[in-house]
Amino acid sequence: MVILGTIVGIILLFAGGVGLTITFINYDVVSLPWIEGLLTYGVFALLGLAVIALLLMMPHDD
Question: Where are the domains of the chain?
Answer without folding.
Answer: 2-57
